[in-house]
Design a protein that fits this description.
Four copies of one chain form a homotetramer. By secondary structure, chain A is an alpha+beta fold. Chain A has a single domain, classed as Pantoate--beta-alanine Ligase, Chain: A,domain 2 (2-Layer Sandwich). Chain A is built from three helices and six strands. The first copy, chain A, has a four-stranded antiparallel β-sheet with strand order 2-4-5-6. A two-stranded antiparallel sheet of chain A has the order 1-3. The longest helix of chain A is centred in the first third of the chain and has 20 residues.
Chain lengths: ~120, ~120, ~120, ~120
């Protein structure tokens, strides 16, 4: 048993997959919201977010898509915006032993809110 | 049913309590790590972190303790440090319907790591 | 001479007042943008931002006003928003020896941009 | 005259070069400190920081070096650390009309502090 596993003996593998994915999603949002971004820099930012969040416990993959339309419509002379939750569509996949979870961050128009939810779980 | 509830129909109340607490803990860490802090400002920072994270979905209370010893031992002439994970001891309590979870962030010496884990859950 | 002063011997006191105020303003924006906030928590967040940024070198005072109107108009069921640059009106005053600078962050409608500029300097 | 220039008519080009470089450095530090990083992800993080901060006003180039030694010495089973100021060596070059400034962030051992200073200015 890994030393840290005793801290997780009170939850199931499915629950830990959900737990670690949720931490990663909260972390991702609050680490990177506010970052300056435009059409030229969006790709390297997506890749860095994916790479950074992939090192977290139990995370097997991270896919980040930043809304290009918003970037193309920038209407100030400074030619960039601060990354906001509305611009993000993110999938974090976690694996804990035999269980897998897919956590999603997506702006939901009817809620007017960038929602984090469990899109799929074993 | 609240409009957002359909996004959570695939997990149990216990799982959602864990999910929302984990998001909040990841968010808290990555929002506030790096904040300048010293013995004079530590109280207002603790309170602001508690208040800010209490507004997140399902969160019923947040307790933040920043290590005073580290602040008292600051050994540079600038008289402050950047908040780091090692300095944080945090409890986030979430309630989802009839289920409650207590998520903890604590520096674990034997792991040399600020661990987030589920300390208690119904 | 303080040990750090040799690093600033190539600029004037007026320039250092501007320099340190600008660092503090950039720091403030990127540390706190993204923080969850609503009408109940806005005061403690303003105070914590003021306290945190006041510890930086040469900073003599920080005044933070977060736009209440935006908070009152929150139109989602989650009852909070993420702090954004558009909501912030900030004054950072720095003193370097006999020189003082007032750095301002303010959303400028005609620029559609939260601008940082030197509002006043000796 | 660009619309924003009236906000800078009270400072010289040299001062604005210093001002914008300082904002960018403060922003960079507080946006990215806390990001998970290890030897595998360090390159994409360096590039994303450089790209993101290059879009800020007057910034002509950004060079970021994250200390590899610290990453190689990670002594926990999670195999990553949170980016801290101690790990960063950054050069931000700004140009304002005929004036250029080089702002540096570097950990200074004798100060035990990650110092931001003006390394060179016209």
């Amino acid at each position: 048993m890994e030393p840290e596993e005793k801290y997780f003996s009170n939850i199931t593998n499915r629950e830990r997959a959900i737990f670690e994915g949720a931490i990663t999603m909260g972390a991702l949002f609050h680490q990177f919201v506010g970052t300056p971004v435009n059409s030229d820099t969006v790709k390297s930012l997506e890749k860095a977010i994916e790479d950074a969040m992939s090192v977290q416990p139990c995370v097997s993959s991270v896919e980040v898509v930043i809304d290009r339309e918003i970037l193309e419509e920038i209407s100030n002379e400074f030619d960039y915006v601060s990354l906001s939750g509305e611009m993000l569509d993110v999938k974090v996949t976690t694996v804990c032993s035999d269980k897998q979870a897919l956590i999603r961050l997506k702006f939901i128009s009817e809620l007017n809110y960038p929602l984090m939810y469990v899109e799929d779980v074993d």
